[in-house]
Every structure is written in C-alpha cells, then in structure tokens.
Write a structure and sequence with these properties.
This protein has about 350 residues and is α/β, with parallel strands linked by helices. The chain has helices spanning about 25-35, 45, 65-70, 95-110, 145-155, 175-180, 190-205, 235-245, 280-285, 320-330, and strands at about 5-10, 40, 60, 75, 85-90, 115-120, 125-130, 140, 160-165, 210-215, 250, 270-275, 290-295, 315. Strands 3-2-1-12-13-14 form a 6-stranded parallel β-sheet, with helices on both faces. A 4-stranded parallel β-sheet has the order 6-5-9-10, with helices on both faces. It has a two-stranded antiparallel ribbon with strand order 4-11. Strand 12, helix 9 (about 280-285) and strand 13 (about 290-295) form a beta-alpha-beta unit.
Amino acid sequence: MAISPTIFIIPTGIGCEIGGFAGDALPAAKLLASASGCLITHPNVMNGGSLSEKNKDIFYVEGYSLDRFAKGEIGLKSVKRQKIGIIFDSSIEYEILMRHLQVADACVATLGIDVDSYVLTKKPLGIVIDSKSQCISGGLIENPDTLIEAGERLIDKGVTAIAIVAKFPDDSDIIGTNAYREGKGVDPIAGVEAVISHLISKFLKVPCAHAPALNPIELNENLDPRAASEEIGYTFLPSVLIGLSKAPDLIELTDKNENITLHPSNIESIVVPSGALGGEGVLAGIERGLNIISVKNENILNINNNNFNCPKLIEVDNYFEAAGLILAIREGINPKSIQRPLNKIQELTFKKQQF
C-alpha cells in the first residue's frame, strides 16, 4: 500500500487540550503515522519528559526546520543513527548537571543511543520567561551568541544532532506552573524552549531539541495525567535523546538531491488544531494546495478557520476522524463519498461565443 506523507503540527505554548502537555499528543501521532505510513512532526508532539518512543514511520523534526520543509526549502534524509552532542547552560548547578550526564550515559548503555560529547556554554544563556503574558507562552534568551558558539564547537567535533539543556529560573510563576500541572493552563516555559531550538535550527541547520533544567518541585496531588510524564524523573532529557537518535538529516534542496528520503513535494496533508492555522508551515501548505485537516482541539488561539481562504480545508471532530480521513486519502477514496449529504456531480456548461 502506498504511503500518504502527512505533517502533524500542534503549536507550542498555546495550551492545546491535546498536545499542550508533556508528550500527550504522542498516541495521536502514532495513530496518524499508522494511517499515513509516514508522519513528519516536531518535538513538542513527541517529547514526554522521561517518556518517548522511536517509530520508523515518524520523522522527528524541530519546529523551525519543519516549517522550512513545509515551505519546500529542505528535504529529509533517513539515517541509521545520529551522533548527538549536548549543550549545557553554564548556569546549571553541579548536582543537576550530574543528573543530566547520568541520563546521557543511561541512554548509551540501555538504549544504544550515540551520545558522543557535551559542552558548557561560555556564558549563562540567561533565560527570561514572559510571566506577564496570561495567554501564549513566551520569553527570550539574553545571550544567544553563546548558544550558537557552543553548537559550533560540537559540530566541529563531528556531532550531527544537538540536544540543548538550559537552566530555567527558579522564581518562575508558581501559580501558573501549578495551573499547568493541574491541566488548567499553558505550559509556562514552552515558548522559550521554542526560541532556543529555533536558534540552533536556523543558524546550524542540524536536528535539535531542548530539555529544560529545573529544580525539583513539591508534590502536587491534583496532578493532571497529561502532565504526569514530567514528574517521574530527574530530567526531561531522555525523550530528547530518544527523538534525536534517528532524527532525519536536513538537506538543502538543489537540482541534484539523490540522497533525499522525503521531498516536500511528496507531502499530501497537514493536520493542525482548529483555530491555529496561522503558522508558517500551514500557510505554506495552503498556498501549495495541500489537504489541511483541521482537528477540534481547544486552545487559546481559536482563530475562526473562515479567516483562511483554503479550498482544501477539511474540519473534523477528533484525531480518530483525522486518521480515517488520511487513510481514505492514502487509499485514493474520495472523502466526499463518505460524507452526508452527498451532492450530485455538477454539469459544466460552455460559454456562448460572442460574435
């Protein structure tokens, strides 16, 4: 059976009911991958703190690079393994650093992942969380140059994929954090995480993902199950290393691209939450005439889909329906034939010639 390559996007930091937490969209990704035979998605979907999975049908691509792929700027090349290097924020305390290094050693010893080396940034990254925003998660890095410099150091030593571990402030909004842990708010650090990984993708053009370094927090008995995977280990690094271990290479498109496994022209569909169609990747998909499958998935944006001129926009109620729709596309079945009411085919008339 032919595959139907599909991009799966859940934007970071907008509080999606599914995908707004630690890897809680992973089951949906597995379902869509099974239906399509080839799914391209980003770490926000796959990373579950200490939990994640390798899946031969899923391409793990950082969000900035995923947008470039959707826009037709790069292709993807499957690899047997990546040689991973880790950038550690130099402001991370010794004990927390040791915990992360033990995680890396465990991933080598137990999972067979190639984690080659690590580097400390010359200066602290200086992570600032936008605590004033009550909606979308955001923030900034005070010293982005030191992050890029550390990444270049790893690449010079032969590293092909980069994990970043940044120290996050201990005085972050406790009320907001607990609201998120209890399933009532937006992930307060997700926006800054995206900034960190986007920087590496943009300037170094290698697979990458980020894991925050946080001090342990007090037990919360009202924990939402969607946030539970972030509570069961010392670090969030395992899911990042698992995802990067076989992440595809990013190949700049040229006239001769014999080594590309997946070309952006092969993509047939993009799955995205309703009301969140404004990202670069989705807009590029609309422009290229792809199927845009809009799934009801409550989030802060909830922009009316009618604002987008998209003739191939299909709205569905859940990811079960999205998977069924992708399977129909994969099998060459006209989705309209399964929908009701079923309209008659239209007659085309010739315009009268003017004499």
